[in-house]
Amino acid sequence: MTTLTSPHDLLAAIPFLIGYHPQNSLVLVALKDEAVGMAMRVDMPSDLQASGYDLLASHFLRDEADGAFVVAYVGDGAVDPENVLINTSAALVRAGIDIKESLIVRDNRFRSMLCSDLTCCPPEGSVVPDLGSSRIAAEHVIAGHPMPFESVDGLVQSIAAVPSSFESIWQDEVHAFWVSSDSEEIQELQRDGATAVIDLAGEYREGRGAEDRELAARVIGRLSDIQVRDFALGSHADESADYYWVMWRDLLRIAPRGFVAPVACLFAAMAYERGEGALAHKGLDRALSDDDQYSLAHLLRRVFTAGWPPQSFSAMRAQLHPKVVAAIFG
Prior knowledge:
The chain is built from 14 helices and six strands. The protein is an alpha+beta fold. It folds into two domains: 7-151, Cytidine Deaminase, domain 2 (3-Layer(aba) Sandwich); 163-329, no CATH class. The protein is elongated. InterPro entries: DUF4192 (IPR025447).
């Protein structure tokens, strides 16, 4: 993330950090040695106790942050944003976190809680700058990042099922590769699934995507096996992360009912590692909508909600992968 040098930079960066333009939200952005770390968004608190604010601050300690930006995006409700920002800042200060900026955004205007200079921070606030013309947006677009969605609804739609996922012929194709846990050929099927994941990733690396319909069906179907799913969880490296990311997103959108949860968890895990927490949680929503008892989705929800640093999650995944490879390929 680029350096944030002004409130304008901060307000331009937040939609990129969480994936969409927040509304009626409290957003906290962590700083570590002046570098931007995680961003956390919650609905504007209305009756949160001090312990609740301390819980928010605890995520910053876990991320080893030393500073924070805090922004209240005010909606139509009766919540007092100043009181929310004061309580949030107090909790962060108790945790030893330095408050770098505290802003209220309302009706496309913003004002700082920390600045008393009326020439730069008038009581009526200043106009929120246009995102498209900002330095932050230009740097993100040049780096290949998409523009943020206008609302959380756009974020949800970006990973929603496409009509073809409901076609009965496609559902039958995928189901043909379903793995029964008591199959006499379980290890052979697991090897087939792991190999299919690598083969499809190779298709994405070459820019062909999911053109091979049978291969895509094979991957989605074989992911019904936990070992294949866990193999897929650790199969990407830093240099391959971008095309794996596109692959899991595409497969999530075309996966038929009953096969969504494993793909959604893989997508959510990668989203979390990329710092896209809101998208990670929406991925888990899709997983639990498909199977409300899916254990990995519940585990990931606890991990994400606890604010584990993405690096710690990546390290755990990397430690697990060799064991899964050994179990599948012997």
